[in-house]
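Problem 12. The chain below contains 300 residues. Write out its predicted structure in token notation.
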Amino acid sequence: MPSRIPFAARIAATTLVVGVAAGLLLNEYKAYLLNPWTRDGIVQSRVVLIAPRVSGIIEKVHVSDNALVRTGERLFTLDAIQSELALPAARTETNRLRKLAETAGRKARQAVGTAEGKKAVPAAESAKTNREAAQDTMRAAQEKVETVIVAAPETGYVTGLAVSRGDFAEQGHPLVALIARDAFHVNAFFRETVIAHIRPGMRAMVTLAAYPDTIIEGTVESIGFGIARTDGSLSSPSEGMLPEVMPAFEWIRLAQRIPVRICFQHVPDNVILRVGLSASVMVLSGENGWSITHLFSMLR
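Solution.
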């Protein structure tokens, strides 16, 4: 017959197992507090809306959608006929008034001390004023010619290109969006219960849903100071400029989430960043080591 395990031994074994499990859970909870982690992250970048400074017909589109463009590279060229006609006219008027000013000034210098000289000085000053005004006109005409060229203000990716040759471009109305190449970051939303353990400068580990097996190193750049309320309570008009974050459900109490900005330290060659990608983020406080559970959770 099988030997019977004493009741006391069974109690001791059960107590030991429960104690070990409780210790592991406590360690994981401590690791969660000291190394906060969230799956609620999103890749973002600075989005520049490109709009022409003057209205006109699009004469040529120099780029294609999703293309990488460099700072100063042409995006569109508008019809410049009227602008190009204004420039020669302004140049001709400037030259004419310049010659009048030179002639009047020469006569004034030759007739110094005479009655004719006294009359020539105001004429020379008037001609000089007219010449400066004409130069301003020519400068404005030159600037108008330059505005028909819409160029990239910084290096980035063309997005949402939906115009073509012959379309009418309205002054100040965006034609396309440009995603800045060098401004990619992650906005990670952490529960308010752990936000006190996060500080700027802390190391962060980021994984993207598009590249689940690659860990990207980052740094906490800043922590949000406000979010818009979504509980139906009245809010001031100024809160419309704050990020609107839906609260996470935890039993009965709804925990608010605060955006934490994570900048990338190094992006592996196999990772292509795109605005809107889902991200998981763990912040390392340095007070506790890696959590195996968190590591595997990030890689899932």
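Discussion. The first strand starts at residue 37 and ends at 44. Students who got a different answer should revisit the alignment rule from Section 12.3.
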